[in-house]
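Suppose you are handed a protein chain with no further information: no name, no annotation, nothing but its sequence. What can you learn? This example shows the usual starting point.
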Amino acid sequence: MALPPPSESATALITGASAGIGEAIARQLASRGHGVTLVARREERLSALAGELSERHGVRAEAIAADLGDAAARERLAAQIEGLGLEVEILVNNAGFGGAGTVAESDRERLLAMVRLNCEALLDFQARYLPAMVERRRGVVINIASTAAFQPIPGTATYAATKAFVLSLSEAVHEELKGTGVTLTAVCPGPVKTEFTRAAGIEQAEEQLPGVFWMAPEAVAKAAVDAAENGKRAIVPGLLNRAGALTGQHTPRMLVLPIAKRLWRRQAL
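A reasonable first move is to predict its three-dimensional structure. Written in structure tokens, the prediction is:
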């Protein structure tokens, strides 16, 4: 199962493309000749990246600023893409954010916004673009989940729950798509050197977690695109992350929950 061949009328829609894994996946796809539609809130960054990719790889690169947690903004984005005469043949659902703190101590609106972006927006785009992919019998979806998807995590409970949703949805839909010519891959990275920790308010994690556990976004992006190229259901980039994911999946909850709680409490200090 290969990526769809690049064409003038096709685009790879990449959310959260202004930095980190999203930006790195945009670079990976553009280097393979795919046109890209870059979406995030930071228009200046998107425009700079679009210009760079177009000049370096000779691909069509669009930059569209949007707050994807807003349903109306997603409707406008879809209309803009249609107005450009583009068909989304590759969809990368990367936009999302996390946070540290107990549910009781967290801002209610921020938690709800997290669910809207991490879950609702992802499902919206998936449900919006999959029917046409199936009709054309070609297309790829890459959903960025997390190793947090493999176990509940007290101290970042909502974030871990959103990523569990992403992984569960992705694995089920991957099976639904068999025989259609379309594939869906969930990518579950562990710690990645991006702006995520600052946005989540856990910058100290980079100092407290040994460097061997961290991956570069470029390495995660290559693993993601290679996995999609090969029609993988789900991947966990990095040997240590795979070991951690297996441990999280199979360790009894009565053991893993107190350990996770202590670890995340330490990150918040």
